[in-house]
Amino acid sequence: MAQRVPSGDAPRRREAPAGVSYTVRVFSVRKRQRKRGPAYEVRWQVDTLRHGKTFATRALADSFRATLLAAARGGERFVGTTGLPVTAAPPPARELVSWWQWMITYTDLKWPNLAPSSRRSTAEALASVTSAMRTMPSPRNQFAGSCLASRSCAIMNTGTPMKAP
After folding, report:
1. Are residues 60 and 117 in the same domain?
2. How far apart are alpha carbons 40 and 54 in whole angstroms?
3. CA distance 107 to 160
4. Whole-number pLDDT of residue 129
5. 137/163 same-domain check
6. Does residue 87 lie in a domain region?
7. 102 plus 163 within the same structural domain
8. pLDDT 10s digit of each residue in the chain, 165 long?
9. DSSP tag of 85
10. Is residue 2 included in any domain, yes or no?
């Protein structure tokens, strides 16, 4: 005999974190006439926000719509602002790397395999670029007092991390 489950113990609906939702509606592909020929629009809705994307061919639109439907049927969360599944959302922005750190990493990578004349050319090229960066009016310019533009300043791999000037 089946027993009744008390209301406090009933299974709960999945709660999505802020900004994402499981509530998705995907509409049929709509054909739109343009001056350059027909366009096909896929429309969908995440919570109350409507989204759409236009494609040049019906096949591309159907493929994108199938991707949305598969994600919705698979129980994926959708980002409300973009309307895309969490797995298809663009990755977060990468951390910015300073010119100094990039230059040291590049030098550490290339230096062991370069011939002496290539090392000199690389050092001169990096010094030239750094010099050009110093003259650019930019708030991100971190090398206002740097000596790297001078040929007397050595750019070399010492095997130890170098500090930015």
Report:
1. no
2. 6
3. 12
4. 86
5. yes
6. no
7. yes
8. 455 445 544 444 445 556 788 889 999 999 999 888 999 999 999 988 899 999 999 999 999 999 999 999 998 999 888 888 988 777 777 788 888 888 888 889 998 999 999 999 998 998 888 887 776 665 554 544 444 444 334 454 445 555 555
9. B
10. no
Domain count, the chain: 2
pLDDT value at residue 140: 52
Quick one: CA dihedral 75, 81, 82, 83, positive or negative?
Answer: positive
Q: 3-class DSSP state for residue 38?
A: strand
The length of the chain, given as a count of residues:
165
Q: Which two tokens stand for residue 33?
A: 């006439």
Instruction: Give the whole-angstrom CA distance, residue 26 versus residue 63.
Output: 13
Termini Cα distance of the chain: 79
Confidence at residue 27, expressed as pLDDT on a 0 to 100 scale: 93
The beta-strand segments (E) located in the chain are 20-21, 24-26, 30-34, 37-46, 49-55, 78-79
Strand partners, 46: 24, 49
Amino acid symbol at 146: S
Spatial separation of the C-alpha atoms in residues 39 and 60, rounded to whole Å: 10
Is there a single domain that holds both residue 163 and residue 113?
A: yes
Domain of residue 146, residue span: 97-165
pLDDT at residue 149 in the model: 41
Q: Are 54 and 62 in contact (CB under 8 A)?
A: no
Q: Which single residue is written with the structure tokens 């395999």?
A: 113
